[in-house]
Write a structure and sequence with these properties.
single chain; 294 residues; Rossmann fold; eight-stranded mixed sheet; 8 strands
Length: 294
Protein backbone atom coordinates (compact mmCIF):
# COMPACT_ATOMS: atom_id res chain seq x y z
CA UNK A 1 0.00 0.00 0.00
CA UNK A 2 2.83 2.39 0.83
CA UNK A 3 4.52 1.64 -2.50
CA UNK A 4 1.24 2.19 -4.34
CA UNK A 5 0.78 5.50 -2.55
CA UNK A 6 4.17 6.65 -3.82
CA UNK A 7 2.92 6.07 -7.37
CA UNK A 8 -0.31 7.93 -6.62
CA UNK A 9 1.61 10.89 -5.18
CA UNK A 10 3.78 11.04 -8.28
CA UNK A 11 0.80 11.01 -10.61
CA UNK A 12 -0.83 13.85 -8.67
CA UNK A 13 2.37 15.89 -8.85
CA UNK A 14 2.67 15.31 -12.57
CA UNK A 15 -0.99 16.18 -13.10
CA UNK A 16 -0.61 19.41 -11.13
CA UNK A 17 2.12 20.88 -13.34
CA UNK A 18 0.77 23.89 -15.20
CA UNK A 19 -2.61 23.66 -13.47
CA UNK A 20 -2.11 24.15 -9.73
CA UNK A 21 0.37 24.12 -6.90
CA UNK A 22 0.36 20.82 -5.00
CA UNK A 23 1.70 20.25 -1.51
CA UNK A 24 1.66 17.12 0.65
CA UNK A 25 1.36 17.90 4.36
CA UNK A 26 0.34 16.23 7.60
CA UNK A 27 -1.35 17.54 10.72
CA UNK A 28 -2.19 16.25 14.17
CA UNK A 29 -5.76 15.15 14.89
CA UNK A 30 -7.24 13.90 18.16
CA UNK A 31 -4.17 13.19 20.21
CA UNK A 32 -1.02 12.01 18.51
CA UNK A 33 -2.34 10.76 15.18
CA UNK A 34 -0.75 12.41 12.16
CA UNK A 35 -3.16 12.77 9.25
CA UNK A 36 -1.65 13.18 5.75
CA UNK A 37 -3.34 15.55 3.34
CA UNK A 38 -3.02 16.94 -0.16
CA UNK A 39 -3.32 20.70 -0.62
CA UNK A 40 -3.92 22.26 -4.03
CA UNK A 41 -3.78 26.01 -4.69
CA UNK A 42 -4.16 28.20 -7.76
CA UNK A 43 -0.90 29.00 -9.54
CA UNK A 44 -1.54 32.63 -8.73
CA UNK A 45 -3.56 33.92 -5.81
CA UNK A 46 -5.77 37.00 -6.07
CA UNK A 47 -6.05 40.01 -3.76
CA UNK A 48 -9.46 38.72 -2.70
CA UNK A 49 -8.99 35.66 -0.53
CA UNK A 50 -10.01 32.32 -2.00
CA UNK A 51 -12.88 29.98 -1.10
CA UNK A 52 -11.83 26.48 -0.08
CA UNK A 53 -13.06 22.92 -0.37
CA UNK A 54 -12.40 20.09 2.06
CA UNK A 55 -12.38 17.17 -0.39
CA UNK A 56 -13.34 13.83 1.23
CA UNK A 57 -12.45 10.69 -0.72
CA UNK A 58 -14.72 7.69 -1.14
CA UNK A 59 -14.33 4.20 0.39
CA UNK A 60 -13.77 3.11 3.97
CA UNK A 61 -10.29 1.91 2.98
CA UNK A 62 -9.45 4.44 0.30
CA UNK A 63 -7.30 7.46 -0.49
CA UNK A 64 -7.31 10.42 -2.89
CA UNK A 65 -7.74 8.44 -6.10
CA UNK A 66 -6.33 9.66 -9.40
CA UNK A 67 -9.82 9.75 -10.90
CA UNK A 68 -10.37 12.97 -8.95
CA UNK A 69 -7.60 14.72 -10.91
CA UNK A 70 -9.74 16.50 -13.54
CA UNK A 71 -12.28 17.59 -10.95
CA UNK A 72 -9.71 18.97 -8.51
CA UNK A 73 -8.09 20.80 -11.43
CA UNK A 74 -11.48 22.30 -12.26
CA UNK A 75 -12.00 23.37 -8.66
CA UNK A 76 -8.61 25.10 -8.51
CA UNK A 77 -9.17 26.73 -11.91
CA UNK A 78 -12.39 28.14 -10.46
CA UNK A 79 -10.37 29.72 -7.67
CA UNK A 80 -10.77 27.19 -4.87
CA UNK A 81 -8.03 26.05 -2.53
CA UNK A 82 -8.56 22.31 -2.00
CA UNK A 83 -7.45 20.25 0.98
CA UNK A 84 -7.96 16.47 0.81
CA UNK A 85 -7.42 14.71 4.16
CA UNK A 86 -6.32 11.07 4.12
CA UNK A 87 -8.40 10.42 7.23
CA UNK A 88 -7.84 7.49 9.60
CA UNK A 89 -8.47 4.13 7.97
CA UNK A 90 -7.05 5.33 4.63
CA UNK A 91 -4.62 3.09 2.77
CA UNK A 92 -1.03 3.87 1.85
CA UNK A 93 0.29 5.39 5.07
CA UNK A 94 1.20 2.47 7.30
CA UNK A 95 -0.38 0.36 9.98
CA UNK A 96 -1.09 3.05 12.60
CA UNK A 97 -3.34 5.15 10.38
CA UNK A 98 -4.92 2.07 8.81
CA UNK A 99 -5.87 0.50 12.13
CA UNK A 100 -7.10 3.77 13.62
CA UNK A 101 -10.29 3.42 11.51
CA UNK A 102 -13.27 4.93 13.33
CA UNK A 103 -16.23 4.93 10.96
CA UNK A 104 -18.40 7.97 11.59
CA UNK A 105 -16.37 8.76 14.71
CA UNK A 106 -12.88 10.23 14.93
CA UNK A 107 -12.55 10.27 11.13
CA UNK A 108 -14.97 13.20 11.26
CA UNK A 109 -12.52 15.05 13.52
CA UNK A 110 -9.73 14.34 11.02
CA UNK A 111 -11.75 16.05 8.29
CA UNK A 112 -12.97 18.97 10.41
CA UNK A 113 -9.44 19.66 11.67
CA UNK A 114 -8.48 20.32 8.04
CA UNK A 115 -10.45 23.57 8.31
CA UNK A 116 -8.18 24.73 11.13
CA UNK A 117 -5.16 23.84 8.99
CA UNK A 118 -6.49 26.02 6.18
CA UNK A 119 -7.19 28.87 8.58
CA UNK A 120 -3.77 28.83 10.23
CA UNK A 121 -1.40 27.83 7.44
CA UNK A 122 -2.96 29.22 4.26
CA UNK A 123 -3.59 32.97 4.49
CA UNK A 124 -4.97 33.05 0.94
CA UNK A 125 -8.07 31.16 2.16
CA UNK A 126 -11.21 33.02 3.19
CA UNK A 127 -12.18 31.21 6.38
CA UNK A 128 -15.82 32.25 5.94
CA UNK A 129 -16.09 30.48 2.57
CA UNK A 130 -15.15 26.86 3.23
CA UNK A 131 -17.32 23.99 1.99
CA UNK A 132 -16.98 20.23 2.43
CA UNK A 133 -17.63 17.79 -0.42
CA UNK A 134 -17.53 13.99 -0.42
CA UNK A 135 -18.56 10.84 -2.24
CA UNK A 136 -20.17 7.66 -0.88
CA UNK A 137 -18.51 7.05 2.50
CA UNK A 138 -16.90 10.45 2.04
CA UNK A 139 -20.37 11.91 1.47
CA UNK A 140 -21.42 10.46 4.81
CA UNK A 141 -18.37 12.06 6.43
CA UNK A 142 -19.17 15.39 4.76
CA UNK A 143 -22.73 15.39 6.09
CA UNK A 144 -21.71 14.38 9.61
CA UNK A 145 -18.95 17.00 9.60
CA UNK A 146 -21.44 19.71 8.69
CA UNK A 147 -24.09 18.51 11.15
CA UNK A 148 -21.65 18.37 14.07
CA UNK A 149 -19.70 21.52 13.17
CA UNK A 150 -22.00 23.88 11.23
CA UNK A 151 -19.93 26.89 12.26
CA UNK A 152 -16.90 25.52 10.38
CA UNK A 153 -18.53 25.25 6.96
CA UNK A 154 -20.57 27.44 4.63
CA UNK A 155 -21.98 24.56 2.56
CA UNK A 156 -21.88 20.78 2.17
CA UNK A 157 -22.15 18.65 -0.99
CA UNK A 158 -22.69 14.91 -0.59
CA UNK A 159 -22.71 12.72 -3.68
CA UNK A 160 -24.31 9.26 -3.40
CA UNK A 161 -23.74 9.40 0.39
CA UNK A 162 -24.12 6.53 2.84
CA UNK A 163 -27.25 7.52 4.74
CA UNK A 164 -28.64 5.06 7.27
CA UNK A 165 -26.49 2.43 8.98
CA UNK A 166 -29.50 0.51 10.31
CA UNK A 167 -30.83 0.04 6.78
CA UNK A 168 -27.39 -0.60 5.34
CA UNK A 169 -26.44 -3.35 7.78
CA UNK A 170 -29.86 -4.98 7.61
CA UNK A 171 -29.78 -5.15 3.80
CA UNK A 172 -26.12 -6.06 3.32
CA UNK A 173 -25.54 -8.35 6.29
CA UNK A 174 -24.90 -7.21 9.83
CA UNK A 175 -21.76 -9.22 10.60
CA UNK A 176 -20.18 -8.70 7.20
CA UNK A 177 -20.71 -4.94 7.37
CA UNK A 178 -19.50 -4.76 10.97
CA UNK A 179 -16.23 -6.38 9.93
CA UNK A 180 -15.84 -3.83 7.15
CA UNK A 181 -16.74 -0.67 9.04
CA UNK A 182 -15.79 -1.52 12.61
CA UNK A 183 -13.03 -4.14 12.78
CA UNK A 184 -11.85 -2.74 16.14
CA UNK A 185 -15.40 -2.85 17.63
CA UNK A 186 -15.35 0.85 18.45
CA UNK A 187 -19.15 0.87 18.09
CA UNK A 188 -19.31 -1.58 21.00
CA UNK A 189 -21.83 -3.97 19.48
CA UNK A 190 -24.56 -4.52 16.91
CA UNK A 191 -27.26 -2.01 15.92
CA UNK A 192 -29.64 -3.75 18.31
CA UNK A 193 -27.14 -3.42 21.15
CA UNK A 194 -25.87 0.13 20.45
CA UNK A 195 -28.69 1.96 18.76
CA UNK A 196 -27.42 5.35 19.96
CA UNK A 197 -24.02 4.86 18.32
CA UNK A 198 -25.39 3.75 14.94
CA UNK A 199 -27.96 6.55 15.00
CA UNK A 200 -25.31 9.19 15.76
CA UNK A 201 -23.22 7.98 12.81
CA UNK A 202 -26.11 7.93 10.31
CA UNK A 203 -26.67 11.22 8.42
CA UNK A 204 -30.40 10.50 8.10
CA UNK A 205 -30.88 11.14 11.81
CA UNK A 206 -28.82 14.35 11.78
CA UNK A 207 -30.94 16.28 9.27
CA UNK A 208 -32.37 18.62 11.90
CA UNK A 209 -28.82 19.66 12.86
CA UNK A 210 -28.00 20.90 9.35
CA UNK A 211 -28.06 24.70 9.28
CA UNK A 212 -26.08 25.37 6.08
CA UNK A 213 -26.91 24.81 2.39
CA UNK A 214 -26.70 21.12 1.46
CA UNK A 215 -26.61 19.41 -1.93
CA UNK A 216 -27.27 15.68 -2.39
CA UNK A 217 -27.18 13.73 -5.66
CA UNK A 218 -28.26 10.10 -6.01
CA UNK A 219 -28.40 7.51 -8.80
CA UNK A 220 -31.43 5.25 -8.93
CA UNK A 221 -29.30 2.37 -10.30
CA UNK A 222 -26.73 2.62 -7.49
CA UNK A 223 -25.79 -0.87 -6.29
CA UNK A 224 -23.85 0.37 -3.26
CA UNK A 225 -25.92 3.16 -1.73
CA UNK A 226 -29.17 1.78 -3.10
CA UNK A 227 -31.99 4.12 -3.96
CA UNK A 228 -34.12 2.90 -1.04
CA UNK A 229 -31.33 3.91 1.35
CA UNK A 230 -30.51 7.20 -0.36
CA UNK A 231 -34.10 8.36 -0.77
CA UNK A 232 -34.61 8.27 2.98
CA UNK A 233 -32.18 11.18 3.25
CA UNK A 234 -33.50 13.04 0.19
CA UNK A 235 -37.10 12.75 1.42
CA UNK A 236 -36.09 13.97 4.88
CA UNK A 237 -34.21 16.95 3.43
CA UNK A 238 -37.07 17.88 1.14
CA UNK A 239 -39.55 17.68 4.01
CA UNK A 240 -37.53 19.19 6.85
CA UNK A 241 -34.96 21.47 5.18
CA UNK A 242 -36.63 22.69 1.96
CA UNK A 243 -34.97 26.11 2.16
CA UNK A 244 -31.47 24.65 2.56
CA UNK A 245 -31.51 21.46 0.49
CA UNK A 246 -30.76 21.03 -3.21
CA UNK A 247 -31.35 17.43 -4.31
CA UNK A 248 -31.46 15.46 -7.55
CA UNK A 249 -31.94 11.79 -8.38
CA UNK A 250 -30.42 10.67 -11.69
CA UNK A 251 -32.22 8.02 -13.70
CA UNK A 252 -29.97 5.09 -14.67
CA UNK A 253 -26.76 7.07 -15.25
CA UNK A 254 -23.84 5.15 -16.75
CA UNK A 255 -21.73 3.84 -13.90
CA UNK A 256 -24.42 3.97 -11.22
CA UNK A 257 -22.65 4.64 -7.92
CA UNK A 258 -19.61 6.20 -9.66
CA UNK A 259 -21.46 8.04 -12.43
CA UNK A 260 -20.19 11.53 -11.61
CA UNK A 261 -16.48 10.70 -11.22
CA UNK A 262 -15.73 8.15 -13.95
CA UNK A 263 -12.72 8.98 -16.10
CA UNK A 264 -10.79 7.46 -18.97
CA UNK A 265 -8.19 5.25 -17.23
CA UNK A 266 -5.47 6.26 -19.69
CA UNK A 267 -5.99 10.00 -20.03
CA UNK A 268 -7.79 10.57 -16.71
CA UNK A 269 -10.22 12.82 -18.57
CA UNK A 270 -13.89 12.76 -17.51
CA UNK A 271 -16.13 10.47 -19.53
CA UNK A 272 -18.51 13.42 -19.94
CA UNK A 273 -21.76 11.51 -19.95
CA UNK A 274 -24.83 13.77 -19.84
CA UNK A 275 -25.47 12.89 -16.21
CA UNK A 276 -21.86 13.51 -15.20
CA UNK A 277 -21.82 16.91 -16.89
CA UNK A 278 -25.14 17.85 -15.35
CA UNK A 279 -24.12 16.77 -11.86
CA UNK A 280 -20.88 18.75 -11.88
CA UNK A 281 -22.60 21.77 -13.39
CA UNK A 282 -25.04 21.71 -10.49
CA UNK A 283 -22.26 21.19 -7.94
CA UNK A 284 -20.30 24.21 -9.18
CA UNK A 285 -23.42 26.38 -9.33
CA UNK A 286 -24.37 25.33 -5.80
CA UNK A 287 -20.90 26.10 -4.45
CA UNK A 288 -20.70 29.43 -6.27
CA UNK A 289 -24.05 30.51 -4.85
CA UNK A 290 -23.44 29.18 -1.33
CA UNK A 291 -19.95 30.63 -1.08
CA UNK A 292 -20.75 33.77 -3.06
CA UNK A 293 -17.90 33.19 -5.49
CA UNK A 294 -17.72 35.60 -8.46
Amino acid sequence: MVRDQTVTDRRWREASVGFMRMEKISYRSLGELEVPAFVFQPLETTPRRHPALVWVHENIRGHLYEHYIPFVREAVTRGFVVIAPEYRGSVGYGRELYEAIDYGGAEIDDVVTAVDVLATKYPAVDRRRVAVIGWSHGGMIALLSAARNPERFAAVAALVPVTNLFHRLASKGVERQRQLIDPQNRFGGTPAERRDVYRDRSPLFQVDKLTIPVLVHLADNDEDVTIDEGMQLVDALRARKPDLATTKVYSAPAGGHTFDRRVDPTTLEPLNTPEQRDSWSRVWAFLDQSLETP
